[in-house]
Amino acid sequence: MDETVHASPHRLTGHVTLVTLEDVRRQIGRTGQDLPLDLAGVTRLDTSGAWLLAQGGRSLTGADNAQRRLIEAVRDAMRSGIVVKDRSALQRVGDVVVAVGTAPGRALRNLAQGLGFVGLVMARLAGTAWHPGRFRITALVHHMQAVGLSAIPIVALMGFLIGIVLAFQGAAQLQQFGAEVFVVDLIAVSILRELGMLLTAIIVAGRSASAFTAAIGSMKMREEIDAMRVLGLDPVDLLVLPRLLALVIVLPILGLVADLAGLFGGGLMAWTQLGISPSQFRSQLLANTDATQALVGLSKAPVFAAIIALVGCQQGLLVKGDAESLGMRTSRAVVIAIFLVIAVDALFSVFFAVWGV
Question: Whole-model pTM?
Answer without folding.
Answer: 0.71
